[in-house]
Amino acid sequence: METTTDLTTEQIARAFSGHRFDLALQHLADDVIWTSVGGGPLVGRKAVAKAIERTAADLADVTTEFQRFRSVVGEESVVVDSLARYTDTDGGVSIVASCDVFDFAADGRITEIVSYMIELPN
C-alpha cells in the first residue's frame, strides 16, 4: 500500500494518540507491532486496525477532553504524552494518563507502537 501524505511523523503520531484513527490507519506498516504494556502485542496491520475499530466504537459515545497533550520528536521516533478525561453518557468519569512511543520507517510508516496507560483516581 503506497502512502502519499503531507503529514509529518509527529502529526501521524498525534492523530493516533488523539483518537483520530482514520488519519493514522493509512500510515501503519504491514508488519506493525503495537504493544500495550502489561498486555500482549498486536502484530500486523489487520490486528492493529481491528483494535483501533474496537477502541473507536468504545469511544463513540464518550466525551474526551485532553488536559495535557504533548509530543517529543526524535529522528525515527515520536513520543506522545497525554492526560485525558473521559466522560460517558451516564456521567461516569475516567482520568487516564498515557504515553505512546512510535517508531517510524524511512517511508513515514509506523513500524512499532508501545503504549503505557494508567487510570488515575478521580
Automatic annotation (TrEMBL):
Pfam families: SnoaL_2 (PF12680)
TM annotation in the entry: none
Protein name: Nuclear transport factor 2 family protein
InterPro entries reported for this sequence: NTF2-like_dom_sf, SnoaL-like
Superkingdom assignment: Bacteria
Originating organism: Agromyces kandeliae
Domain SnoaL-like: 11-113
